[in-house]
Amino acid sequence: MAVLEIEGDTALVSPVPSRRRRTNGLFVAALVWIALIGLAAILADVLPIMSPTDMDMLGKREPPSAEHLLGTDQLGRDMLSRLIYGARISLTVGLLAPVIGLVVGGALGMIAGYLGGRFEALTVGAVDVLLAFPPLVFALAVTAYLGQSVFNLTLVIGVLGIPAFTRVARATTLSLTQREFVVAACTLGATHTRILLRELLPNVMLPLLAFFLLAVAVTIVVEGALSFLGLGVPPPAPSWGSMIGEGRESLDIAPWLAFLPAGFMFVTVLAFNIVGDTLRALTDPRPGAL
Amino acid sequence: MMPDSAAMPVAPLLSVERLTVEYPVAGRILSAVSDVSLSVGRGETLGLVGESGCGKSTLGRAVLQLRRPTAGKVMFDGTELTALGGEALRLMRRRLQLIFQDPIASLNPRRPIGDIVAEPLIIIGITDRAERERRVRDVLTAVGLDPDLVWRRLPHEFSGGQCQRVCIARALILEPELVICDEPVSALDVSIRAQILNLLEEMKRRYGLTLLFIAHDLAVVKAVSDRIAVMYLGRLCEIGPTEQVFGSPAHPYTALLLEAIPLPDPTIVPATNVAVGEPPSPLDPPSGCRFRTRCPRADALCAEKIPILRPTADGQLVACHHPLTEG
Amino acid sequence: MTSPLLSLEAVSVELPTPRGMLRAVDKVDLNLMPGRTLGIVGESGCGKTMLSRAILQLLPKRAQLSGRVTFDGRDLATLSAEVLRRLRGPELAVVFQDPMTSLNPVLTIGTQLVETLQAHLGMGGATAIRRSVELLAAVGIPAPEQRLRQYPHQLSGGMRQRVAIAIALSCEPKLLVADEPTTALDVTVQAQILDLLAREQKRRHMSMILITHDLGVVAGRTDEVAVMYAGRVVERAPTSRLFGHMRMPYTEALLAAIPKLESPPHTPLPAIAGRPPDPTRPLPGCSFAPRCRYADEQCRQAKPPLVDPDRCGGLYACWHPLAPQAAAMGI
């Protein structure tokens, strides 16, 4: 008669410290900022702020006042509302473009890592080619051909981001395919699709998501750079990047015209970086064994 | 030709014929399994024993077609597994299961136990959730785990022994006919090993299983096996009933293994200078009998001719030109 | 009467973990005479590895050591890092379980051996190389001159462990701590390595501590055995006495749970129920009580001390030890 080990004792219920949140203030502050700026961007139309395109020719480059909480820019437009509407552009492109990379690149990387062989070689090769493309030239070409718009911008940046996601997904998948639980799924008779979706995806997801947040940060900067160069969203739509570009001329008399959008961009990118980093640190499923 | 059909009045459940597994490594050929033939009868446990590099794990996986053999056949209940592919093989899998050495790594770290054990049922298409739950509960209780306590937990919350019970539950829920156990207790503590071995024996009785038990620990293998096969560097050395192989080993390597085991009895002085040298590399195995470089009985014949399995007077099968049972 | 080479007095090791303070080693007393071999046996989590680290003064930074570790008359905790460093090698040496991690993978075998000899014994280059070849030959490595130029990954596991032993023995230490030296090796190689250690130990009149989970390994090759459970030594006796007349139910259960070569197949194994205890949740009484079939209320309330009431050299920590005559079992 076997010794049955009906685990009724409390020794089984080893309290798993559920994902020790780095409750350092930095993480919380980052989350708060993202929430604030996100909400502001979504609700921009209903917020009691001025229109971002109304020009007040008499009040150009005004310092902060009761009427214009953050002053006005070189064409008399309200800075605060321009910053908020700019957030809309930055966050839209910043969040949507990496999604393209995540979905397309993640899927490609996972399948390549799992199947191996010629498909993997092909994928890696194609991705390398894409990586070799000078991104700015590519962006120039696309916008010149298709025209400047938020949609095209998102598309360009999204496609440029695919190789990075493919690499992360493939590397994680490669480390998993030889693990016993994947072999076990195979011995149970699972189809390839099932193994990819039920065994590999849950394990690849977290590292990909952590990387996604970092990609958001990078995308915001890239969009800013493109807009700064005039390749991004066309005026008069405000974008942090174009605002920085426009503020360049007034650096000596009204430095805040450039520094305010730069500051907003800096803090937002930093916030996404912090959240992404924290998520990556929490990515390990197990608390360290003793 | 079934080499040990002498012991097999009925058609065996599993029959491995001249199985060879080789794969290229840095331009050379690694001969992991070489021309192995054995069979396992329904309801019996065949122990497969050997040291690292002998190919026993590779053999186990080759039987399941997880690694396609380079040559040879695997017959399971009349069907040739080596000839199956794709969907047919996938459907066949539910009848042959595998239990791994590292129980924690065999479980998806992000899926709860209940999901993991229910997975095989979903794969074969049981859509009724209540039915699935009932069967998962049954098998979890059978392996000694309380379903309510373990259902929603993740693998890392359990010890090695408990994880192995989950793996056994997962392997048995489809009620397979053959279970290959690949070093199922090597990674576990001594006190837990006994529990799991007892559990495997009980499950075998309860589900009417046939087992291929692969391990390097001779005492562990002896405890559960009806017959034993000894492998060295990809080839079978000896195969026969357990008591006989242990009591009067025919192959010098088996004798060497038995002498090298450290016994928990201080009155027995460990034999010194028992083993000579180390196993050669499977990339460059010795010609003829692969054990000859370490065998005290080796001679020129051993270097020229590969010994084939032939019966001894006692009914074992041994692959040796100068077996111990013949002076 | 000579004084012990190594002496542990009430040695405890505590580690901070997210779940609370973990007592890995709990007030361990041990003595080791020169030239003798002590076997420390226990399952995973019993604290034997932490104990070996405490002896070697190689504990992780966050660990807290209390009690005294005296080596050759000197309290190791009072020594400076520099003195300790000079101690390790010529006096105190260690062989770990995994030779792949204890050998530097990017340095050749020769470099690692020669460096040790030069650093600790101040040997010149040529002398050191000659001595290295001698050492490799002594541990049974064929073609030692060629091996000097090879890297660890080019050798098999057994070979690597021999090299690790050669390095450990190179400076003629007084005490060798072998932490699971053969666990990762095949049984035939294991026998060779254990033979090698025993031979060298006798030849050099060296003391040795052999740490393992395998009772078979200590049975033939140690003078004294200490059994650890949940951070404490629960039984300690000369080897033949431990196996012949064990007093602690855990030792009895451990021995009984090992499949015996003499038993016929399908003999049910007397398994120990339950699991090893959680070190972060120490129990008030005896740690083995939840799994012990002789346990009673006293066992659950109070921790039994390690005593030797019969004065026969065998200590045990149990309120209800096995009767001496009846305990000759498991063999």
Key descriptive features of the protein:
heterotrimer, A: 290 residues, mainly alpha, elongated, disordered N terminus, disordered C terminus, C: 331 residues, alpha/beta, seven-stranded mixed sheet, four-stranded antiparallel sheet, 12 helices, globular
What does this structure look like?
The complex is a heterotrimer of chains A (about 290), B (about 325) and C (about 325). Chain A has about 290 residues and is an all-alpha fold. Chain A has nine helices and no strands. In chain A, helix 1 (about 25-40) crosses helix 2 and helix 7 runs antiparallel to helix 9. The radius of gyration of chain A is 24 Å and the shape is elongated. Chain B is an alpha/beta fold. In chain B, a hairpin with a 2-residue loop joins strand 1 (about 15-25) and strand 2 (about 30-40). With about 325 residues, chain C is an alpha/beta fold. Chain C has twelve helices and eleven strands. Classes of the chains: A mainly alpha (about 290), B alpha/beta (about 325), C alpha/beta (about 325).
Quick description:
The complex is a heterotrimer of chains A (290), B (327) and C (331). Chain A is an all-alpha fold.
Itemize the secondary structure elements and their pairings.
The complex is a heterotrimer of chains A (290), B (327) and C (331).
Chain A: H1 25-42, H2 79-115, H3 117-132, H4 135-146, H5 150-177, H6 180-187, H7 192-228, H8 240-247, H9 256-281
Helix pairs in contact in A: 1-2, 1-9, 2-3, 2-5, 2-7, 3-5, 4-5, 5-7, 6-7, 7-8, 7-9, 8-9
Chain B: E1 14-25, E2 28-40, E3 45-49, H1 56-63, E4 71-76, E5 79-80, H2 86-92, E6 96-99, H3 113-123, H4 129-142, H5 147-150, H6 160-172, E7 178-182, H7 190-207, E8 210-215, H8 218-224, E9 227-232, E10 235-241, H9 242-247, H10 252-260, H11 300-304, E11 310-311, E12 317-318
Parallel strand pairs in B: 3-8, 3-9, 6-7, 7-8
Antiparallel strand pairs in B: 1-2, 1-4, 4-5, 9-10, 10-12, 11-12
Helix pairs in contact in B: 3-4, 3-6, 4-6, 6-7
Chain C: E1 6-17, E2 20-32, E3 37-41, H1 48-56, E4 64-71, E5 74-75, H2 81-87, E6 92-95, H3 99-102, H4 109-121, H5 125-138, H6 144-147, H7 157-169, E7 175-179, H8 187-204, E8 207-212, H9 215-219, E9 224-229, E10 232-238, H10 239-244, H11 249-257, H12 297-301, E11 315-316
Parallel strand pairs in C: 3-8, 3-9, 6-7, 7-8
Antiparallel strand pairs in C: 1-2, 1-4, 4-5, 9-10, 10-11
Helix pairs in contact in C: 4-5, 5-7, 7-8
